[in-house]
Specification:
The structure holds two protein chains of two kinds.
Chain A: E1 15-26, E2 29-40, E3 44-48, H1 55-62, E4 70-75, E5 78-79, H2 83-89, E6 90-93, H3 105-115, H4 120-133, H5 149-160, E7 167-171, H6 179-196, E8 199-203, H7 207-213, E9 216-221, E10 224-230, H8 231-241, E11 247-251, H9 257-267, E12 271-276, E13 283-288, H10 300-310, E14 317-320, H11 325-337
Parallel strand pairs in A: 3-8, 3-9, 6-7, 7-8
Antiparallel strand pairs in A: 1-2, 1-4, 4-5, 9-10, 11-13, 11-14, 12-13
Helix pairs in contact in A: 3-4, 8-11
Chain B: H1 17-31, H2 34-55, H3 64-96, H4 100-104, H5 110-121, H6 124-140, H7 146-173, H8 178-197, H9 204-213, H10 215-228, H11 233-236, H12 241-258, H13 272-291, E1 307-311, E2 315-319, E3 323-332, E4 341-349, H14 359-362, E5 367-370, E6 378-386, E7 391-401, E8 413-414, E9 418-423, H15 430-461
The chains are: A alpha/beta, B alpha+beta.
């Protein structure tokens, strides 16, 4: 058995991916401008950005599918001038990965194992081990055409690991999966990073999953990096720059929705706006237009909670706007657009 | 859970990547059923054709040589079509199915990927050809045409199938979807096939040139003249130039120009240099084709002299479809070198009520020329007649000295005749044809079912590896 990295993520970590000022244009449009970031072994880096921000272009460049116009990157000590060598060291799960439907899972992995220079027997042995790792060992001899979407995603991840890569790129791996399958896949991704010491770059639109499993984050907007660093650093940096506590969110059962709204308006006269959040069912957004003279801003949370409790309204959830990665993302991308 | 760590060991593969791609693609193509389905359709086409030759009143009279040639022509046309369809699906199909990226993400060179897919694309040809041989055998009825037909059909078919598979792959290389790829490659194929199939399309110098430059028409012409009309290979080689150049050009484009820059998006990155290179390659292709046009020997005019012609045969008793061969001897008994000489074959139907004979249909070379004959010299010429219709005929030869100028004429000299008695051709035995017409598609159908069943059994048994081991 080889062990890519038996040390845990708390051990000494070295940079396995360094991107330096990478840019790409399509005619007059700048798809990517000066992408600079690094990734350490055993860490998961979330790659965020709205549609058209340059995520796909970045991934395509870093996986050698596209040539950058300028800049360079280094993966596991290999410069981007040697794409074939880079490809030996990376594993990729593209956003839209197709599979031959008339091939079985084990045949598929054996084929790719052989392409990376293994003998048939060795590639098959590896394929079986990987299928076991991703929980598909019982379906090894089934045609891929009979796999569910989640199983195909797991097979895709197994394929991305056949060359024992230093860096794994996962582009929207949980797209189209049900919540259970999403969680299983996220667990698997964490095991890849923590267990093997592989660096993982995770592209996703689901900000909560980035927040939950990523160590670092790069936020792209209009082809430019608007934030990078560890998740807590990025959230903290943005929180300092926005008016923390200016808005709150509270979640109540749907039957108490109207009463909660009334209670909040009556108990705090300086509250100017209480509105439901369209995309978050059961949530109310409480926007404080101005602070009271005699109330410290951090005590407003207590006042609101007390009012709801006194009115016997169950509070399911309560949070300050700006404290989540989603808020940071929305704020940063909104600012950049403006 | 094995903590996502894998066994490595010293088990390095010695197999080249193109071979791995080829075998994987081959498995998809054949076990997936696409190739077998296409071959099933192919055997149906051949079966219907042979059935018609056996049971249709008029077609059953077709001489064996011509029937074999027609079957070979159709077998090649359908095989080219199969290669084209498979080739057109390779790269653009992978783009559509999102299976190309995972291949491109491996350290395998782009050219090796293309080579593997190309070999898969032509893999149906040997099978289709082997399937055509029993059909050709039954149509040949023991005629000597069978072996040359098998040899030349395989050689020319291989050239054309390789060329059109490469064409399909090139269309696929520059297309983002199969629809575009199929439309482009099939469009080119039909444009080349239609003139080759239309009778009389090669009339005139321009028609001859178009026929020569068209790789399919040119190949058909070669096969027709050599297999049916017995023309010597030395006179026909130029008809192989066009298919060969066409194949070399497309293979060169595919492997040397396109494949190294295979990428996820259709086509190549359009740089100024690549556009220039495309123009140069296009220009060179045209130049090669134009320069390869066979030169037509100029005919000179001269005067007549004292000349004689004789024939070495007086009778022949044959059946329709047989070949009659004979020689003529031309002698110059004069004291001066002869002018250019023209020797022409004539065939006359002795039955007053019989059909008028068109000698062009009967002889691959009805007229031959001698540049000049020195005094006292003798020369011999070889002639072949294909017996088309039954009946009583007289074949005779005429020697015509070329007139000196527009205002003069010359005295023709005729030989004695060959009395040609032709009996009707024995029709194809329907009973002998039916086993092939029914059996071949049935065998392929059984094979399709067997492959599917075997595959399912192995998958349920948990060992799909036995399929190709």
């Amino acid at each position: 058995m080889i062990k890519k990295n038996t040390s845990s993520t708390t051990g000494s970590q070295h940079e396995i991916l360094m991107s330096e000022d990478v840019s790409k244009s399509y005619g007059p449009r700048h798809a990517l401008q000066g992408l600079t970031f690094s990734l350490k072994a055993g860490r998961i880096l979330g790659f965020l950005g709205p549609n058209g921000a340059g995520k796909t272009t970045s991934i395509r460049i870093l996986t050698t599918m596209l040539d950058p116009d300028s800049g360079h990157f280094v993966i596991d000590g290999i410069h981007s001038d040697h794409p074939e060598e880079i490809r030996r060291r990376i594993g990729v799960l593209p956003e839209s990965l197709g599979f031959p439907t008339q091939t079985t899972g084990i045949e598929y992995l054996t084929f790719f194992g052989q392409l990376y220079g293994r003998s048939r027997a060795s590639a098959r042995e590896l394929g079986m081990a990987l299928l076991e790792d991703v929980g598909l060992q019982k379906r090894a001899s089934s045609l891929i055409g009979t796999y569910s979407h989640g199983m195909k995603q797991r097979l895709g991840i197994a394929r991305a690991l056949v060359n024992d890569p230093t860096v794994v790129f996962l582009d929207e791996p949980t797209l189209g999966l049900d919540p259970r399958a999403q969680q299983e896949l996220l667990d698997l991704i964490q095991r890849i990073a923590r267990g093997r010491g592989t660096g993982v770059i995770l592209c996703s639109h689901i900000l909560s999953e980035i927040e939950n499993i990523c160590d670092d984050v790069v936020i792209l907007n209009a082809g430019q990096v608007v934030a990078r660093g560890s998740v807590s650093e990025v959230i903290g940096r943005v929180q300092r720059n926005i008016m923390l506590g200016n808005a709150l969110r509270v979640q109540v059962p749907s039957g108490f929705f109207a009463r909660a709204k009334q209670t909040l308006k009556a108990s705090l006269p300086h509250l100017m706006k209480v509105n439901p959040i369209g995309e978050m069912e059961g949530w109310l957004r409480i926007e404080l237009v101005e602070s009271t003279d005699d109330t410290q801003p951090h005590l407003i949370n207590n006042i609101i909670l007390s009012a709801l409790i006194r009115a016997r309204i169950p509070v399911l959830s309560f949070e300050t706007e700006g404290g989540r990665l989603q808020d940071v993302f929305l704020r940063l991308t909104e600012e950049a657009i403006q | 859970m094995s903590n996502l760590r894998v066994t490595q060991g010293n088990h390095h593969s010695t197999l080249p990547a193109w071979w791995l791609v080829f075998t994987q693609e081959l498995s998809d193509l054949w076990i997936g059923g696409k190739a077998l389905n296409l071959i099933f359709i192919y055997t149906l086409v051949l079966a219907v054709m042979v059935y018609l030759y056996a049971f249709n009143t008029e077609l059953s009279l077709t001489p064996p040589k011509e029937a074999v040639y027609e079957l070979l022509k159709n077998a090649m046309a359908v095989s080219i079509f199969i290669g084209l369809i498979i080739g057109s699906d390779t790269l653009s199909g992978d783009r559509e199915r999102n299976t190309l990226e995972s291949l491109l993400l491996t350290p395998v060179s782009r050219r090796q990927i293309v080579v593997g897919k190309f070999l898969m694309g032509i893999s149906a040809w040997p099978v289709t050809y082997v399937l055509a041989i029993p059909f050709m055998n039954v149509l040949s009825q023991g005629d000597e045409v069978l072996l040359p037909a098998i040899f030349w059909g395989f050689l020319i078919g291989t050239i054309l199938v390789m060329a059109f598979t490469a064409l399909g792959m090139l269309a696929s290389f520059w297309s983002g979807s199969n629809r575009v790829s199929y439309f482009t490659s099939l469009g080119v194929y039909i444009l080349l096939l239609i003139p080759a199939e239309l009778p009389g399309s090669s009339i005139g110098a321009a028609g001859q040139f178009l026929q020569w430059i068209n790789p399919i028409a040119s190949a058909y012409h070669f096969l027709s003249k050599h297999l049916v009309n017995y023309e010597a290979l030395s006179l026909l080689w130029s008809w192989l130039v066009s298919p060969t150049v066409f194949a070399l050009l497309l293979l060169g484009l595919l492997f040397l120009y396109a494949s190294p820059s295979l990428r996820l998006e259709p086509g190549k990155t359009a740089s100024r240099w690549s556009r220039k290179l495309e123009q140069v390659i296009g220009g060179m292709a045209l130049l090669i084709l134009v320069l390869s046009i066979p030169s037509t020997p100029a005919l000179a005019q001269s005067q007549a002299s004292d000349l004689q012609i004789s024939i070495d045969r007086s009778t022949a008793l044959v059946k329709t479809g047989d070949k009659v061969e004979y020689n003529t001897t031309v002698s110059n008994h004069g004291s001066q070198t002869s002018p250019p000489l023209i020797i022409a074959m004539n065939i006359v139907n002795l039955d007053e009520m019989g059909d008028t004979v068109d000698p062009e249909d009967w002889a691959p070379k009805r007229t031959q020329y001698i540049q000049s004959l020195p005094p006292g010299e003798t020369t011999s010429l070889h002639w072949i007649i294909n017996t088309i219709l039954d009946g009583n005929y007289m074949v005779y030869m005429v020697l015509i000295p070329a007139p000196a100028n527009n205002d003069s004429t010359s005295q023709a000299v005729a030989t004695s005749g060959i009395h040609l008695t032709i009996h009707p051709f024995t029709r194809l035995n329907p009973g002998g044809v039916l086993p092939y017409a029914i059996g071949a598609p049935l065998i392929v159908l059984v094979l399709i079912l067997f492959v599917h069943r075997r595959r399912n059994v192995l998958i349920h048994a948990g060992d799909p590896f036995q399929t190709f081991s």
